Amino acid sequence: MQYLASHGHEKTGNDVIFSWLARYQQAAAAGADAVNGTVGALLEDDGSLAINSVVDAALRVAPAPEFSAYAPLKGLPSFLDLAVTLALGDHREGLERSGVATGATATPGGSGALFLAASNFAERGDAVLLRDRHWGPYAGFLKGCSLEAVTYPLLPSPESDDPTMFARGSFVDQLEAMARKQRTVMTWLNDPAHNPTGLSLPAESRRDLLVAFMEQAMRHEHVGHTLLIDAAYHLYADEPHGWAETITEVLDTGLPWPENMLICFAVSLSKSHTIYGLRTGALVYLHPEPQSVGRLNDVMGVTGRQTWSAAPRIAQHVLSELHATSEGGEAWSTERDRLADLLLQRRQAFVAACTARNVSINPTHDGFFAWYECDDPVAVAEACASRHVYLVPLSGGVRIGLCAIPLKHVERVAQALKEAVEEGA
Question: Which run of H or of E encompasses 23?
Fold first, then answer.
């Protein structure tokens, strides 16, 4: 295949999540009483796709031109304003009043926001800092932009006696090593409602991480520092705008914002508004200098133009209109709360079932997933699949898609994990 470039030859294999979904679908089609814990979309307890009825109704009455017309390259202004509000919540006004400038670029989903960051905030050949348990496609986004990944532990080691959920020492050590050999330092942090574990950092850990990052930027004033919060699931979390609150509190203590530091939010409307296929999201960025934010608007708009042209228009328009009134926002919120309650009931039942069976799952608080840490994830997933419980083996453990598992099957999943462990899988 001489027509395929060398970097194209490196793209092999199928996405592991979709591979295990296919196995579930094959079992179900053959008549098995199978449990689907593979997908990353929220399903109702009857197995149908959970859809926010308020968003669906608003889409169906939108004017035809809003479906067919291009959006502006950077996004509809009303949607960009909404994206900033979705990222910062009630803390937006206080941050802007304190001198923090905000901007945003519309993207095709949260994945588009991650691509913008990978493409523009790290020099080619640099490494980007991730937690050692992270969403698998991160590696593809980075590699596609000629970047590497380095990691630090998701949680402190048991020997550290650290009561927080943030491995500060390892985080700072990696930042320091990167700053000594790179012109740019960037870290991606999927929080709250981390994929694949459901972990959400408490306020103390958020503050510790932010202060550590700011101090590191001040120590290396000639190295660009970017903290990207992947907020794909944040509107299903108990503290959806915890990061905006933490940023506000840290600035209120008088800690200066380093000029060489940028904070970004990768916002996805797929989960929060149940419009996965409409591919709507945004990269939101914060910096004290308005001219820097203005320059970023240009850079991101050009990058989008050269990659996907413009992000889809219809959801930008509909959601901007929906959230423009208190009635629309409250109607969306009521339906979102119903869907969030599905997740809460399943998570509480799963944690209780695992505790009763002495199955040691990772701390899990919010969002779509839970996580079983193990040395041989494939063996555990295969043992569960032999019981027609289908989960996803990833690096370091097995992802349990609570978003897809009906409440009545939660205990069955815990039992399958227990038996898999007892068999030595």
Answer: helix 16-29
